[in-house]
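so im writing up the methods section and need the ABM domain-containing protein record in one place, dumping it here so i stop losing it
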Amino acid sequence: MGQAGFRAGTIQGTNAAPSCPCQPRAVPTASPEERNHSQECGSAHRARQISVATSSIEEFRQAFRSYTEGTAGHSSCLHVSACKLTDEACFILYEFWRDVTSWRSHLQSSCSKTFQQSILSLLESPELLTTMLFPASWWIMNNN
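--- predicted struct ---
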């Protein structure tokens, strides 16, 4: 745990720093009551930082395109977008989900599982996943 109740993000499965130039930011630690409330009535924002082996970029792009199209078509996905960092084989994928339950359900979908399996051998390093919960009113106020 860092200073002032913040904890630093880590790469799934390792404590190594990400190979992409963008570093994870500290996120505030929520109380159990805040976490339960957010899970019940909040939207989930998921940011994935994916470093790809330079020799595998085209193969990754095909799998990535298929995944983003399938995810965008999911009824509980509020928004999905992606970008590639300039001069890096690093992609950032942003997903906004209606709630945590919808996001977890999507993780079990064939679209998500196929993407995860197809990119394992294409990665330069493990992906960095950051999940943030927002009150449902945040999405409504900012998208009307």
